[in-house]
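[09:14] KT: can someone run the structure on this one? pasting the chain below
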Amino acid sequence: MPEIVGNLHLHTTASDGTGSHAEVAAAAIRAGLDFIVYTDHNIAVEGVEGWWRDAHGREILRLMGQEINDMQLVPEYNHLLCHFVADDLNNLAADPQQLIDAITDRGGLTFLAHPLERPGMGAAQEIYPWLSWDISGYTGIELWNTMTDVKWQLRSKLRAVIGAYLPYLVLTAPFPEVLAKWDELLATGQKVVAIGNSDAHAMSFSLGPLRRKIYSYEFLFRTVNTHLLLAEPLSREVSQARRQIFEALQLGHCFVSNDLVASSRGFSFSGSSGDRQASMGDTLPLQETVTLRIASPLPARLRLLHQGRVVAETIGRELTWQTAERGVYRVEAYRIYWGWQRGWVFTNPIYVE
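[09:31] RB: done, structure tokens below
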């Protein structure tokens, strides 16, 4: 299946980011991304979508979304990533269920942004988790958010200085409580698609006399991204390309990767049972037994989880597992990077029924 890599949560000068739409797109090209979705706070900008070319003739697909939340709340929790809808729906921000329903009715997708957060230092002590869990009909959750991870990791002055000058040391893995929440939601029988993003703003930070733009757009676009598996190569026609990306996200044909650790292009998780085949996001009817296969482009610690519990683990490039148990199966992969084991790949599940 053709694979493309993109970032679905980022900000420009249209809200609280520091780069223009063109500057952000240029940074994404330099980072090797195939597409981006702009998600400024409570606003969608017209005339931006489409293929965009930089000064060197390299191209990227730019799509439009929004990050909508009730700005009257203090703090402003319940941030919803609303993809492929440009309508002004701020009047519904106070009611997450109404907002989700409105986005769905308009042909969009919804993901709960940074659903669980940890406080950082100074201004970063403010957290913006998702609190209204009595909802339904949303597409999925943001499993890993680079800046949420960064905020927590730089929670002391010493950590902040180290992180400012050695940013490669900072990212670790999705918070265990976020993984546990995802498993909890999956256990209810609903399909919940996981994505991962940068939440890039490219802000400058101060610590006493030190002032530094720690995490540029280009750096952040080299970190946590979402890899999509398409049925066909990405179209040059914008509306068709948008539809291809929409369908891959809606079906969960994707995985989350920290590409700073290593390129994960080519990572696969598949299953077969009788004459039926499945990939990430698919439902696989059980015919006596099911065979699940993990294939990694690089050696890694590979873990196969069933209902949130590790059932098989190896270090290498491949793992094959046979079972007769129904349930939700997903994969985690870890690699050593800068001396520590880091989260690398987190796949969407295969649902064995």
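[09:33] KT: thanks! The mean pLDDT is 95.
[09:34] RB: yep, looked fine to me
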